[in-house]
Amino acid sequence: MLDGLKSAARRVGDDRALRSLLLDCKRLLSERGEANSVAIARQLVARFSALPDDQQGGFFDRLSREFSPDPQAVLSVAQAYAQEPSADNLIRLTHLAEPPRQELLRRINRTPGGTAQIVAMRRKLLARVGAQPELRALENDFLHLLSSWFNPGFLQMQQVDWRSPAQLLEQIIRHEAVHEIDGWDDLRRRLQPDRRCFAFFHPQLPDEPLIFVEVALLPEMPATIAPLIDKHAQPTLAPSQYKLAAFYSISNCQPGLRGVSLGNFLIKRVAEQLQRELPQLKRFCTLSPIPGFAKWLQASGTPGDTPTPLRKGVAERLSAARECLLAASGGDLNALANASTLQSLGEPEREALSRLCAAYLVHHSTSPQGDPVARFHLDNGARLERLNPLGDLSRKGLKQSFGLMVNYLYDLDKVETSHEQFVHGEVAHSRAVSGLI
Length: 437
Prior knowledge:
Structural class: alpha+beta
Oligomer: single chain
Radius of gyration: 26 Å
Order of helices and strands: HHHHHHHHHEHHEEEHEHHHHHEHEHH
Distance between the termini: 70 Å
Number of helices: 20
Strand order of the largest sheet: 1-2-3-4-5-7-6
Shape: globular
Number of strands: 7
């Protein structure tokens, strides 16, 4: 009985805290609240942070329902604008159609530390949207505002090197999402003269990297990842021998900024800076994972089932390639996630694996279900250049793509054209990739 009373008391306390938080929101939106916004916003953020997870969910639900536009008021003004599309009517419509919660977030953002708090709030909101689709409009408000506040024009690009503050170096180790950094020796190697690391920062989060990219300076396009991240390897090339820059890892540090375009601008800014520093660099490429390939191949009973119909000959070759791999793996494609199995494959089987991967990247990348890394680079204006069997024999690489990696080529004179092709449903790719299919 005592436990029941304690539980009831906690619920009453939580409900009271939620009501106080919503009252803070209304106060902050009032005219008086605008004058005292710093104090009210600080109290609001502190109360939100103190709420248990389920009450934070309740707050998002109330924010979604109670701080939305008035449908009848919007309809009335929309009808007036339809009848008389004047500037005044358009201004009134725009004002009334904007959810009041957007102004609430703006006022929180004006306070010291407010930007970081909003990013943190969105991270928690994103964890709920999948199970609560009714929160999508609220999430879109967060994304709309953060996309403006984190416009690349406001961001500062910095090179990270061994002399950078220890706190920043620790964050690079912690947030590396593609190829794990195995301690300080590993990081030190990735910051040697033939390597570069660049990050974006926002003026309101000066000590927090938003996203960073790692680059290898090389004489030719790389085919395997192991030499690039070997912490025992030592730089052996003179700067004059660097002919190509390969982006081999890009990691987001702020989950609350998911969907805000940062990586594409960072890669282009880095390429421009490297070209100024090292004019002999003529090519920029990636060595990228293909995280969706193995799952697609295992699930796809008919590789020719693509967003756009394939020619009969192409579909037949893909089906034959799949049958070839099934025979080589004893009917279980999971066997291809084993390094020794892959290394023992004959040339026909390796060609079959590359053919299916080429078809996956060329014909599926333009759909929302396409490989996420491919979609990022292709939408960014890169060209699908080359597939690399046995490119990544790590456990992660074997599981995700049966060891395959891919090079995307950034031709700075053609990125806009390639981007337009992708937007219109076509993947820019090399003759070598076409020949595989």
